[in-house]
Amino acid sequence: MYNPKSVIAIVDDDQRLLESLGDLLESAGHAVRAFSSAQILLNSNALPEIDCLITDIGMPGMDGFELRRLINERRPDLPVILVTGRHELAELLQPKHTLFFRKPFDGQALLAAIGDALTGKENSL
């Protein structure tokens, strides 16, 4: 029986994070689509094939909150995981949302959250 890989999209303006997170996800058996900005993702034809989206909050141009809002309009079923290096935002959001990670984050915890999101155990933010 063929079991296709889940497609995880990563949107972050930090190239090192895109590469390291991409390596982590691929090592866990996921297919990865990496985008250096929200606009590049939105201008691509990738949205229909994505199973889960991981996006940085603080990016030049469109931030992660706005990207999440636009994605929710187009794909309300798509799980979105937000990440940030801004600790004041992390403290504000952490108690309310389980699909939120502060950089640097634990890779295994992120993989577990993705697994839960893909199986419908968590609601998107």
TrEMBL record:
Keywords: Phosphoprotein. InterPro entries: Bact_response_regulator (IPR050595), CheY-like_superfamily (IPR011006), Sig_transdc_resp-reg_receiver (IPR001789). Residues 7-118 form the Response regulatory domain. Pfam families: Response_reg. The keyword Chloroplast does not apply. It comes from Phyllobacterium zundukense. Signal peptide: none annotated. The keyword DNA repair does not apply. The lineage of its organism: Bacteria, Pseudomonadati, Pseudomonadota, Alphaproteobacteria, Hyphomicrobiales. PANTHER family: CHEMOTAXIS TWO-COMPONENT RESPONSE REGULATOR, STRESS RESPONSE REGULATOR PROTEIN 1. The modification 4-aspartylphosphate is found at D56. One of its GO terms (biological process) is phosphorelay signal transduction system. This is Response regulator.
